[in-house]
Amino acid sequence: MSFLKTCTIYTSDEPCPMCSSAIYWSGLGKLTYGLSKGGYYDVVGRDNPDWVFEMSAREVLKSGKRKVEVTGPFLESEVVELHRR
Fold first, then answer.
1. What b/e string do you get for 57-72 counting C-beta neighbours within 10 Å, with b at 16 or more?
2. For the whole model, what pTM was predicted?
């Protein structure tokens, strides 16, 4: 697992709480994402309460005892276009 602490996972969108937890439990050391959760919901909407869970990846990951570096959002306007197609 010490090798995974040196690895980065790159995602187009900020991970949901479940995926953020999986990143934590996998042992990865860094998360980098493009579109923020707020930006995502601005595009797809917040109408369906079954799909809206706005807890940030940073919030989830800092709840654990092990440090996971989080960087992002990056290139939000480009990632937004992926959701508009």
1. beebbeeeeeebebeb
2. 0.89
